[in-house]
Amino acid sequence: xxxxxxxxxxxxxxxxxxxxxxxxxxxxxxxxxxxxxxxxxxxxxxxxxxxxxxxxxxxxxxxxxxxxxxxxxxxxxxxxxxxxxxxxxxxxxxxxxxxxxxxxxxxxxxxxxxxxxxxxxxxxxxxxxxxxxxxxxxxxxxxxxxxxxxxxxxxxxxxxxxxxxxxxxxxxxxxxxxxxxxxxxxxxxxxxxxxxxxxxxxxxxxxxxxxxxxxxxxxxxxxxxxxxxxxxxxxxxxxxxxxxxxxxxxxxxxxxxxxxxxxxxxxxxxxxxxxxxxxxxxxxxxxxxxxxxxxxxxxxxxxxxxxxxxxxxxxxxxxxxxxxxxxxxxxxxxxxxxxxxxxxxxxxxxxxxxxxxxxxxxxxxxxxxxxxxxxxxxxxxxxxxxxxxxxxxxxxxxxxxxxxxxx
Length: 407
Fold this sequence. Notes:
One of its GO terms (cellular component) is plasma membrane. One of its GO terms (molecular function) is ammonium channel activity. It is a single chain. About 70% of the residues lie in helices and about 0% in strands. It has helices spanning about 5, 10-30, 45-60, 70-95, 105-125, 130-155, 160-165, 165-180, 195-220, 225-250, 260-265, 265-270, 280-310, 320-340, 350-380. The radius of gyration is 21 Å and the shape is globular.
């Protein structure tokens, strides 16, 4: 392989160093000191979100058999860089709008939740993007996600906790748009596959995500925090049970398929994210969990055989049906439940429905447009796109002592 692809010493370390130096300078300007008041976010809740983002997504994307080092290592790198960038972006918006700052723990938690969008998008280009491209994508996507949230909260008057739950929708379609600009790998590539150990590690990440998802959905809820926790748990439980049922029914030999389980057991938590704080009966959350598993498993079948070949988009980890489709189900459920709840009591029902529909459309449109633009830029020659033959390989970026000369 040519040295321009193999050696990133002259690019990646200096980019990271420049970003960190810029972050330190901006933190000096925007965050003068820590607040003296009690945070509205408890430290255990922050820990749950932090564990979910780092451990959950860190292991969730380790299913490729030759890309385990990069999946965990690069994800951790873009998380720690992205959280700082997210805090600065939010702090800059607060500074421009002259809003009071001070709750640092809440800002860190909000930044960690925002990074979910980047980690979801990373799944679409996993193994195809080099570290330079991943870092730049993370910085750009965090900024665009905050811009999208600002539009929803300022002009469409969407509550802040609900606008944060657009993170799945934005991350999925931003990632698909970026991936559309990358070359497709060979369908016969043996590296684009999993092994027993890689699938087991990926399932470990899924379990971390499953356990901490109630904290994720309830962290910024002002009213109905307990309902958000209960509904998320019931929805995830129903989606997990349905995933096992459908996996056995849809495979040729009647056995469970790890890909189905890994993707579908989280669907309930995603689908119920918009309405977890307002659903008053657990059976509603359970129905959403059941439906999410159905559309994930059936959606994976349709995407791999119909959608992806038609649009020429390669989605490495299946984020479209794992995150995008459940998020769309949750958006539809929010509108339906809003209509049912306010059918006879609100004279402005049509306006409220239009506002929520506009927020969903704006989020998807912003994700697709900015993601496609980012994908075009990331594939320019200065960012050294790796050739298709070298996709899904750790050895491009990591040292393996047992492969060194003399061992």
